[in-house]
Amino acid sequence: MQDVVKSIVKHFHLEGTLSEVMPLAQGHINNTYILARVKNKRVVRYILQRINHAVFKNPPAMMANILRVTEHIHSKMQRIDPELASRQLRVVRTDNGTSYYRDPEGNYWRVYNFVEQAVTYDAVESAGLAYEAARMFGWFQRMLNDLPGPVLHETIPNFHNTRIRFERFQEVLKKDPVNLAKGARPEIDFVLGHAGLCDVLPNSVLKGDVPCRIAHNDAKINNVMLDEQTHQGICVIDLDTVMPGLSVYDFADLVRTAATRAREDERDVSKVKIEMNLFEALVRGFAEQTHSFLTSAERSHLAFAGKLITFEQCIRFLTDHLLGDVYYKISRAGHNLDRCRTQIQLVRSIIEQEASMNEIVEKVFQENVDQQ
Ligand code: GN1
Ligand code: MG
Fold first, then answer.
1. Is 23 helix (H, G, I), strand (E, B) or coil?
2. Does 218 contact ligand 1 (Cβ within 6 A)?
């Protein structure tokens, strides 16, 4: 791999000389490496990624989105907080000035600066962390609220179209290509029994109640970088799915990944539940940044969206399990089925507590309005 990486990185405009390449086992989709380079005895680090173009079919369009978004945030932050601006994620260009390099085999590669002295968490350890993660995704929405220019490219069409995800699941179930349906009956029945969730938000969008904005679309807890000392948010990463979308879906992915202490693949489902103190912390963080522009229809769908996106993820993991694990990276047999089970447990937990979740949302947003 070292040689491949060396032949790739020479096309990018990087400081110093390459001293080390470390694979980073994070994310279910792309391949990521940390590059360490030395310049005047100082180490400068970068992130190198090979874009999975089976998933992202149009890497140039995706990189055009990412470039616009990161440069907009950077220039806005330079006016607001230059220190934080210098710690934002930015695309490092190739020597030709492009935002990616295409190798002779047709693979697409990109380089980012490495955000130093920062940490990410795969699971929430405290309400403070939940608050900060939600504040950062709210901040991201606020930063992009005035992005000039044409609408962003749709990097994966119908990414959060739950109805289409459900229909695809039904097709796969019918074919049952690797004969795994019989071992996943309760999970299949759960999905079939909750299909009614799919159309609620799309209908509100059609009616014009819920606007389409710019969304991150993969707003998981581990996509927020925090300062390792202060634990204050620095930036949001993994911008591949930034595209037109619903604000509430970003909040929703936080509910899915940060309103519970359980990991996405926790095998002991008794540990998987929505904790109201974590949920309230999420609402506080998100509301702090977004209360001035979220519509009342968006606010009233925040908890619902949590249920929907968790359900959608459950469909996606189950579909991939039935296909024989072709999409998500797995590290054990049945990994996607385990992931699906945690999602089911979370949907159940949201259903049980949805009324109180809605009350919390109303209370917290009202407090923000009162403080104005
Ligand atoms: C994938 O690769 P990663 O972990 O950032 C997926 C998300 C899912 C997530 C589930 C492009 O994200 O949509 O929510 O796994 N990304 C894509 O953990 O499909
Ligand atoms: Mg992602």
1. strand
2. yes
Of 162, 341, 180, the C-alpha closest to 252 is 162
Closest atom of ligand 1 relative to the 26 alpha carbon: 4
Per-domain boundaries in the chain: 2-116, 127-370
Backbone angles phi, psi at 332, to 5 degrees: -160, 160
Q: Per residue in 335-355, pLDDT tens? A: 999 999 999 999 999 999 999
Please write the tens of the pLDDT for every residue from 232-276. 999 999 999 999 999 999 999 999 999 999 999 999 999 999 999
Q: Indicate the fold that domain 127-370 takes in CATH.
A: Aminoglycoside 3'-phosphotransferase; Chain: A, domain 2 (3.90.1200)
> What are the tokens at 291?
């209360």
Q: Which residues are found with C-beta within 5 Å of the ion, ligand 2? A: 218, 238
Tokens standing for 53? 């173009």
Architecture of domain 2-116: 2-Layer Sandwich (3.30)
At 302, the amino acid letter reads: L
Is there an atom of ligand 1 within 6 Å of 94 CB? no
